[in-house]
Amino acid sequence: MQRTLMSGNEAAARGAWEAGVAVGVGYPGTPSTEVLENLVRYDDVRCEWAPNEKVAAEVAGGVSLGGRRALVTMKHVGLNVAADPLFTQAYTGVGGGLVYFVADDPGMHSSQNEQDTRNYAAASRIPVLEPSDSQEALQFMRLAFELSERFDVPVIVRSTTRVSHSKSLVSAGEPTEPPRSRYASDPQKYVMLPGNARARRVDLERRLDDVRAWAETWSENRVEMRDTTLGVVTSGACYQYVREALPQASVLKLGMTAPLPEALVLEFTSRVEKVAVVEELDPYLSLRLQGLGVRLETNGLGKPGELSPTAIAGAFGLQTPPVRAAIEGLPPRPPLMCPGCPHRGVFHALAKMKAVVTGDIGCYTLAALPPLKAMDTCVCMGASIGMGHGMELANSTDRPIVAVIGDSTFAHSGLTGLLHAAYSQGTGTIVILDNRTTAMTGHQGNPVSGKGIGGREAPAVDLEALCRALGAATVRTVDPNDLKATLSVLKEETGADHLSVVIAKAPCALLIKERKDPYAVDEELCTKCAACVRLGCPAISRDEAKRAVIDIALCIGCGQCVQVCRYDAIVPSGAACDIGGGR
Amino acid sequence: MSVTTVVLAGVGGQGTILAGDVLAKVAVAEGHDVKLSEVHGMAQRGGSVDTVVRFGDRVFSPVVDLGGADHLIAFEIIEAARKVPYLAPSGRLVVNRRLVAPLPVLIGDLPEPEDLEPALAAHGAVFLDAEALACEAGSPRSANIVLLGAASYGLPFAEETWRSIIAGRVPPATVEANLRAFDLGRNACAEGVCAL
Q: How many domains does chain B have?
């Protein structure tokens, strides 16, 4: 059989397509984004980027209500946003199969926190499947739609970074044609007034019992008996680590961790001398096994961050390979804003103003790092605006307070913050960084950018009109690459006694196809003042004599550095870079 | 047969992902079980990145641990130094001499590290100048394929497999230049000219 390399996200998309999914909808978020980006390549699936995960979950719920199969995708923190529909969709159940693909990020490779989606599954009483590699991502996704319909409940497929972003060999299957029926109304099932909800609440327990009974005999809740001295209960990516670190151990590999197949767990644990649980993030399985009366070996693995085979081997007292001493004195390499990034112009101004900046989620969060150091907070999607308003209420600083939020993040959950600030007669300043894309996750379209999924044309909201309608007293648009204009507008608006929105509008540097000519430093004129260096542009460095140097392979000619140089030492280099385009 | 672990370490934007993809496909074509892992998102914005490819009869974990890399192919010299603890006791180290200064160095907060070559040579590193060889091959952007060529010299795959996978993976107009880049990287290691 032909086997091909696929990432977990590619395989999950393939599995959804094979299951005959009609609609895929989500909000981009690492490490989940590529599921929809792959699904949209199948012509017969309708895919949409929603402004946020709650809307996505509701759209998917509507598709399911209409009797078709629907997939909704998000990262772990997105499920916080979608939790409201999730909990009640468990009560209503489904029409067509309804599957949530949720990717957790142990170790926070690209996230603001660690969360364990299995807790949501347990709390909402929704079954959760945990693939451990790409083949399982495909199979479990297919199965999830069947289970959802069979047991009348949404199903979560929970991935982690190492499942979503690892590639392994996959045998793909054939697409199936799920049954279709005409919509028929059923208010007792779908209108969750208390009277109906009470009945569905009781019914949910019955449905969960049915799922649990099924899970007791499902082949992917798999007992692998080897040496009976140690039995390990595990799931997801941790299964792979356990097999590598403890090849002799018996293993109960759980493909479904909620509801837990309790009889199977007890049967397995009775067949081994010692029992250990290996899991990342929360002690989800550990607590449940202890609740069943299973005595667990303590292994010291329940720490923050990712596990690895060596960490597991070490925890079980096995020898780990010798490690070479680190080479000392290496500079760290934090991620940074790209050369020519338009966000830099805004944060350069805010740093100059010594503003208190309530920040948000996106590439621009990197402005918190040196040399700009121009952001005070980053909490969650949309938090900047509410927190800025709250800082104004706290009245504890003489510095200007500015909320900064990206275009996609504003559409995600900034609208309600602005509406509240206007309604509550706030007088703050909000900067919307409109770079025409959702950059951090790989340039997805959003309702502000006028691009749909897969780069298709879509209507763009009139952002200025929207902000006025929400109640901003003034809405002004500036070019953030024009440092003087940006600074002057920000100074005026922070000094004014009304609620203002400043839209800093310039495309993401990575979207610019036609670069302007790069700049160069005139050695005679450079006074080594380093004003340009403090922009933190990766194209600008200093030579041995401390003079500024511009890497013409990286410079895209944004001209920000020209404006900060008081000695006119930054000049056109005269010719476009012709050595292959640098990046 | 046991599992072989290859780490391609570099800076976001250097082409480690494409190189890892080629390597993984070569291993598949030669009949191995293969796993590849990489990190997306925030880390790709000019930060340290690495792609891990593991192949063998049966591969479980997609990740590398300290002391676990049989081959460490560094696309940049500071990243080579940073990843040395990942190198297995008998591991092979190939280093591109290129230094990409991280932001703390660019803005003068921290000095550029010195004496990296001898420190890496103590770990048995072989060095090459991938960008120069890429220019020689006719495409400055083929430095990642030069480094794959260097990696290939120590990996148990047929040269023809490498060439066919590379030809199928790079833009059609650049196939010739990339195959030359592969040869130059491979020959550099074969002839030992990249030794210190």
A: 1
Residue B104 lies in a domain: no
Contacts of A123 (CB under 8 A, 6+ apart): A87
Instruction: Please judge whether B103 and A243 are an interchain contact, meaning their C-beta atoms are less than 8 angstroms apart.
Output: no
pTM of the predicted protein model: 0.96
Q: List Cβ neighbours of B57 (8 Å cut-off, separation of 6 or more).
A: B1, B3, B32, B33
Find the CATH number of the domain harbouring B130: 3.40.920.10
Range of the domain at B145: 4-98+118-190
Six token digits for residue B12: 């976001």
Contact of B50 with chain A, judged by CB distance below 8 Å, is answered with no
ipTM of the complex: 0.94
Give the number of domains in chain A.
Answer: 4
Q: Please tell me if residue A581 touches chain B, with a CB cutoff of 8 Å.
A: yes
Tell me the C-alpha distance between A359 and A417, whole Å.
Answer: 13
Nearest CB to B106 within list A325, A538, A583: A538
Radius of gyration for chain B, computed over Cα atoms and rounded to the nearest angstrom = 16
Residues A94 and A44 in one domain: yes
Q: What span, in angstroms and rounded, lies between the C-alpha atoms of A429 and A473?
A: 10
Q: Is the Cβ–Cβ distance between A365 and A359 less than 8 Å?
A: yes
The DSSP bridge partners found for residue A26 are A49, A73
The answer to whether B2 contacts chain A (CB < 8 Å) is no
User: Does residue A186 share a domain with residue A41?
Assistant: yes
Which of B65, B84, B106 minimises the CB distance to A327?
Answer: B84
Asked, for residue A328, whether it belongs to a domain, the answer is no
Residue A285 and residue A430 in one domain: no
Question: CB-hemisphere CA count at 13 Å for B152?
Answer: 31
Domain end marker among A488, A511, A534: A511
Q: How many C-beta atoms lie closer than 10 Å to residue A25's C-beta?
A: 26
Is the pLDDT at A464 greater than 70? The verdict is yes
Same domain, A85 and A192: yes
Could you tell me which residue, A574 or A553, shows the higher pLDDT? A553
Contact B171/A at CB under 8 A: no
Q: Which residues of A touch B33 (CB under 8 A)?
A: 169
Mean per-residue pLDDT for A147-162?
A: 98
Q: Residue A370 and residue B107: Cβ atoms within 8 Å?
A: yes
Q: How far is B182 from chain A (nearest CA, A)?
A: 18
The answer to whether residue A272 is domain-embedded is yes
Residues A47 and A175 placed together within one structural domain of the fold:
yes
CB contact under 8 A, B107 and A243: no
Chain B residue whose CA is closest to A337: B45
Residues of chain A contacting B45 with CB distance shorter than 8 Å: 335-338, 363, 366, 440
Pairing of strands B4-11, A570-572: unpaired
Contacts A533 to B, Cβ<8 Å: 106-108
Q: Using 50, 70 and 90 to split pLDDT, how confident is the model at A342?
A: very high
CB A321 within 8 A of CB B64: no
Task: Report the CATH number that the domain containing residue A560 is assigned in CATH.
Answer: 3.30.70.20
> Within a domain: residue A122?
yes
Provide the domain limits for residue A310: 221-315
In a domain? residue B111: no
Residue A136: give its domain's CATH number.
3.40.50.970
Burial class (CB in 10 A: 0-12, 13-18, 19+), A395: exposed
- A298 with A348, same domain: the answer is no
Residue A514's pLDDT band (boundaries 50, 70, 90)? confident
Same domain, A558 and A487: no
CB contact under 8 A, B106 and A324: no
**Statement to judge: residues A45 and A147 lie in one domain:** yes
CB contact under 8 A, A324 and B110: no
